[in-house]
Amino acid sequence: MDFKKGLTATIIVLLIGLGIAIVVGSNQGRDVFFINDFDAIVTNSIPAKKNKEYSFQIVRLKGEVNDTILVKPCETCKVEKLSGQISIKFKNEFHTGTSRFSFEPYKATSGKLKIVHKIR
Prior knowledge:
The protein is α+β, with helices and mostly antiparallel strands. The chain is about 20% helix and about 50% strand.
């Protein structure tokens, strides 16, 4: 009976460790921002890993703002003006180098916004 309990405990610990490794590994190349303060410009860069090729750079925005914000989802993208309820995803081709995105409050002074910037 003690052997079964020990084996069960070992399996549970290994599964928990594997789950943590998967979560940590999947968050590499991903940054999340929660915007509550509309006084600052946010810029972010995610460098591609050496010898790894990617397909996309993705920027997701979800939340609400009281006025217009400006978002540049990639270095070569045009600036997008957004306002009110926001739920949008920008998906652009990306292979190597550095993925860059920027957010500017522009006319917005309040709201809640979640921004996810990642490369895949």
